[in-house]
């Protein structure tokens, strides 16, 4: 069996796309059907967004370690990540439905909000992790623009109900931070962590 450079415990095609920029060989380490991966993303009462995103990332790392052990996979570092959007200290997660997506986008309209992405690399010995914090400015959005964007289906499954790499790019006036971090995997921090555990690329 060929041992990958790393395992990636994320279903996000955006994270996989970003990781391929490094030329790192990887295999996906995804939850089985009987694993309730979404339950790891439950927000604790009064939990600050910075604490939340890092805690969830590390919980995903622990779950991935157990998954690799159950499957008796050859050892390799495991990458996990989590992204959240917050406005005035309130976490804006993945929308439940179209109505929730419309409500989230209406809240983000004309605001500056934060996008937080935590990333972790776990080895047999320990876990190394980092946090990327970016600010995003949305221009004011008309209701018909919100309706069209929600109808495209793009907001679903995305923290804050939008993806910077898609149709929502026209809503964004300015960013301060990491574009790749806003997409879901901060490349600067990820590269540093990979080097820390000895992964060459």
Structure commentary:
The protein is an alpha/beta fold and 201 residues long. Helices cover 32% and strands 23% of the residues. It has helices at residues 13-20, 49-70, 98-108, 143-151, 179-183, 187-196, and strands at 6-8, 26-28, 78-87, 90-92, 112-122, 127-138, 172-176. A hairpin with a 2-residue loop joins β3 and β4 (90-92). α3 packs across α4 (143-151). The radius of gyration is 17 Å and the shape is globular.
What is the structure about, briefly put?
The active site is at residue 82. Belongs to the Maf family. YhdE subfamily. This protein is of the alpha/beta class and 201 residues long.
Give the SSE map.
Layout: E1 6-8, H1 13-20, E2 26-28, H2 49-70, E3 78-87, E4 90-92, H3 98-108, E5 112-122, E6 127-138, H4 143-151, E7 172-176, H5 179-183, H6 187-196
Parallel strand pairs: 1-2, 1-3
Antiparallel strand pairs: 3-4, 3-5, 5-6, 6-7
Helix pairs in contact: 3-4
The total strand number stands at 7
Overall outline: globular
How many strands, which pairing sense, and closed or not: the largest β-sheet? 7 strands, mixed
Topology-level CATH name: Maf protein
pLDDT averaged over residues: 93
Rg, Å, rounded: 17 Å
The count of helical stretches stands at 6
Portion in strands: 15-25%
Reading the helices and strands in chain order gives EHEHEEHEEHEHH
What is the total number of structural domains?
Answer: 1
Assign the CATH class.
Alpha Beta
Active site: 82 (proton acceptor)
Catalytic activity: UTP + H2O = UMP + diphosphate + H(+); dTTP + H2O = dTMP + diphosphate + H(+)
EC number: 3.6.1.9
Cofactor: a divalent metal cation
């Amino acid at each position: 069996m060929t041992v990958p450079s790393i395992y990636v415990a994320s279903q996000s095609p955006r994270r996989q796309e970003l990781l391929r920029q490094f030329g790192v060989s990887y295999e996906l380490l995804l939850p089985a059907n009987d694993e309730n991966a979404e339950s790891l993303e439950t927000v604790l009462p009064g939990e600050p967004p910075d604490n939340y995103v890092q805690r969830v990332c590390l919980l995903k790392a622990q779950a991935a370690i157990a998954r690799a052990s159950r499957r008796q996979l050859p050892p390799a570092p495991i990458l996990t990540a989590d992204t959240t959007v917050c406005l005035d200290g309130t976490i804006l997660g993945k929308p439940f439905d179209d109505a929730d997506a419309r409500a989230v986008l209406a809240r983000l309209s004309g605001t500056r909000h934060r996008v937080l992405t935590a990333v972790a690399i776990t080895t047999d010995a320990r876990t190394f992790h980092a946090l990327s914090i970016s600010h995003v400015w949305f221009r004011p959005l008309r209701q018909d623009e919100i309706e069209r964007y929600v109808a495209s289906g793009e907001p679903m499954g995305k923290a804050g109900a939008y993806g910077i790499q898609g149709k929502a790019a026209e809503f964004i006036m300015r960013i301060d931070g990491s574009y790749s971090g806003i997409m879901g995997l901060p490349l600067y921090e990820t590269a540093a962590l990979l080097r820390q555990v000895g992964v060459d690329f």
